[in-house]
Design brief:
Strand order of the largest sheet: 5-4-17-16-18-19-20
Shape: globular
Helix content: 25-40%
Bound molecules: adenosine-5'-monophosphate-propyl ester
Radius of gyration: 24 Å
Largest sheet: 7 strands, mixed
Oligomer: single chain
Distance between the termini: 40 Å
Length: about 650
């Protein structure tokens, strides 16, 4: 009898798929030969002499001795192969404007900007920070940086000036590329002032290059430092000779939240990363020449680094890129774009699927989605109901759903199905991809039996792995590699269990990291933001379960003034404060004023107990609490808060 929970690949899909079942065994038999074969899909100027060098683990060296240029791989080689007229980007702007860019046009623009960057004094190894919406210019900028060997770091346009400033300062950037404004849910908002605030007094920033997007009047301007894109880029030549870079040359720095208040800048390098990004994009999304692929993530998130920028472009794919919010100007915007561009492959996020679900199946039913043949999900575990809704109501029951587990640290997908091969189980990202090895172990490193939760570990180095945390190598070693140092395993920070078939089911984070709408946020970073407000003495932030966003942020605060007093204005004040410190994505949904917080004897806040409470789970281990009364205080405050809110969750 077939298990109704297992969905085999549709036979017609399997028959034409890029990758067949034999690849798993072949990769397992010789992982290095497998990765060398995938690196061979790229264009190298100098071949590598050593596929993998583990002398400096956990900093691995992949394809040592090899040299290549990422932009040439992502753009020029497609033009050189006679595919210059193929569409690279169908860009859709939020207000309804749009632009189609071929690979030949993309090459011209990348070369122009590469020349302009050189004119502005940017050289290989310099850092360039981008604070831009999803524009053609954003794609061009990442490629132009790669072309000249500058290390790019993209900062989400919704982040505050202070969050941007931290990243500009931490990278020591020479150049910031920003825009005059951004569209935010239909409104044009000026952002140049925020960019100015972020670079103020940072002497390493020599220029701010400004893209005109919203046509703001009175853009604040610093003569000598600020330059308009249209002034310096448009007049450049479309000829640019691309140098080659070492396979381990840094390509980008992506910031992510960890367990301290300070975001960490993960450094990804050139040859191994591109190999991992390129092969997994081709295999996971079964890329065909006439596909129209769309990954809906903002370019600043790691998802888009790998599955909009480097992966798809290296494969010469045609993509849709969309500037706006998914619900602007109407909730069917994504389905309208799928219909308009005949999208074949739609890579989305569980939180968005759950948002669509709220509008009912009539939302996707209002559009012609017959072009779709494959769906993908990333960012958090997709609950089976959302999986089935996506599969049935968006994919018409015919499209495999590839649920891809990976992280900023892993560079590209690690656990995910091959759509023509791997039977699917809604809610599980299935099994490690060929060439990758991951499992679930207890704290001692022993594999847990089926159904028993443990720590998710990656047990073999892989080409896309981050090489370090920018300017904090110690933290890199400590965070990920120290816990299983003697075995050389990578600790992912997620709990998981395996089932009888070896399928991996991801649980929650094992650290103080929250996942809100697929955005990774650190409890401690949010608490630091809260206690920087003059009225807050102490704060504890936890993720409470939420039907749409997965988790929602609940902040428990002890106020300096009139402790315990409920203050209607305080919630809004603190939400606004966090938005300024971090960004709107980090605003607490709920603020609960308390007079005490549960702590261990060493003074650590026991967030787990509070998270359990907000989830309606009791009975956590309270033995390390200094004072059981502190938990009662919080429980009473929470009960009053819930009663006042008038619902249960
Ligand atoms: O907890 C896991 C969750 O997102 C974390 C990584 O976040 P970030 O570095 O921002 O990268 C997100 C996009 C790659 C993981 O530790 N996560 C991501 N994808 C999944 C997931 N959890 C379950 N299933 C997934 N498919």
């Amino acid at each position: 009898m077939t298990d109704p929970l297992v969905i085999p690949p549709p036979p017609a899909f399997a028959a034409q798929a890029n990758v067949g079942a034999e690849v798993y065994a072949r990769a397992e038999a010789d992982p290095l030969a497998f990765w060398a074969e995938q690196a061979g899909r790229l264009q190298w100027d100098t071949p590598w002499h050593t596929v993998f060098d583990d002398a400096d683990l956990p900093t691995a060296r992949w394809f040592d001795g090899g040299r290549l240029n990422v932009a040439v791989n992502c753009v020029d080689r497609h033009v050189a192969a006679g595919r210059g007229e193929k569409v690279a980007l169908h860009w859709a702007g939020e207000p309804g404007d749009g632009r189609t860019v071929t690979y030949a046009q993309l090459q011209d623009e990348v070369c122009r900007l590469a020349n302009a960057l050189e004119e502005l004094g940017v050289v290989a190894g310099d850092r360039v920070v981008l604070y831009l919406p999803v524009l053609v210019e954003t794609v061009v900028a990442t490629m132009a940086c790669a072309r000249i060997g500058a290390v790019v770091s993209l900062v989400f346009g919704g982040f505050s000036a202070q969050a941007l400033r931290f990243r500009v300062a931490d990278t020591g950037a020479k150049l910031l590329i920003a825009s005059d404004g951004q569209f935010r849910r239909g409104q044009a908002v000026g952002v140049k002032a925020a960019a100015d605030e972020a670079v103020e007094g940072l002497d390493h920033v020599e220029h701010v290059l400004v893209v005109r997007r919203t046509g703001e009047a009175d853009v604040p301007w610093t003569e000598g430092r600020d330059v308009w894109w249209h002034d310096v880029v448009d007049r450049q030549s479309t000829e640019h000779t691309a140098p080659s870079f070492d396979a381990e040359h840094p390509l980008f720095i992506v910031y992510t939240s960890g367990t301290t208040g300070r975001p960490k800048g993960l450094v990804h390098t050139t040859g191994g990363y591109l190999t991992h990004a390129s092969w997994t994009h081709w295999a996971l999304f079964d890329l065909q020449d006439d596909d129209v692929y769309w990954c809906q993530a903002d370019l600043a998130w790691v998802t888009a680094h790998t599955y909009v920028l480097y992966g798809p472009l290296s494969n010469g794919a045609t993509q849709v890129v969309y500037e706006g919010s998914p619900l602007t100007p109407h909730p069917g915007r994504h389905f309208e774009l799928i219909q308009q561009h005949r999208v074949t492959t739609y890579y989305t996020a569980p939180t968005l699927v759950r948002t669509f679900m709220k509008h009912g199946p009539q939302l996707p039913a209002g559009y012609d989605l017959s072009s779709l043949r494959l769906l993908g999900s990333v960012g958090e575990a997709i609950n089976p109901e959302a999986w089935r809704w996506l599969h049935g109501h968006v994919g018409g029951g015919r499209c495999p759903v590839v649920d891809t587990w990976w992280q900023s640290e892993t560079g590209a997908a690690v656990i995910a199905p091959l759509p023509g091969v791997t039977p699917l189980k809604p809610g599980s990202a299935t099994v490690p991809l060929p060439g990758l090895a991951a499992t679930v172990v207890d704290d001692a490193g022993v594999e847990t039996p089926p159904g028993v939760e443990g720590n998710l570990v990656i047990t073999r180095p892989w080409p896309g792995m981050a090489r370090t945390v920018w300017r904090d190598h110690d933290r890199f070693v400590r965070s990920y590699w120290a816990p299983y140092a003697e075995r050389g395993w990578y600790l992912a920070g997620d709990s998981a269990s395996k089932d009888e078939d070896g399928y991996i089911w991801i649980g929650g984070r094992i650290d103080d990291v929250l996942n809100v709408s697929g955005h990774r946020l650190s409890s401690i970073e949010l608490e630091s933001a809260l206690v920087s407000h003059p009225r807050v003495a102490e704060a504890a932030v936890v993720g409470a379960p939420d039907d749409v966003t997965g988790q929602r942020i609940v902040a428990f605060v002890i106020t300096r003034d009139t402790p315990g007093a409920d203050d209607a204005g305080l919630t809004e004040e603190l939400r606004a404060h966090v938005a300024t410190r971090v960004g709107a994505v980090a605003k607490p949904r709920e603020v609960v004023v308390v007079t005490d917080l549960p702590k261990t004897r060493s003074g650590k806040i026991m967030r787990r107990l509070m998270a359990d409470m907000t989830a309606g789970r009791g009975g956590g281990d309270v033995t390390s609490l200094t004072d059981a009364g502190s938990l009662t205080v919080v429980e009473d405050a929470w009960a009053a808060h819930v009663a006042g809110r008038g619902d249960a969750g």
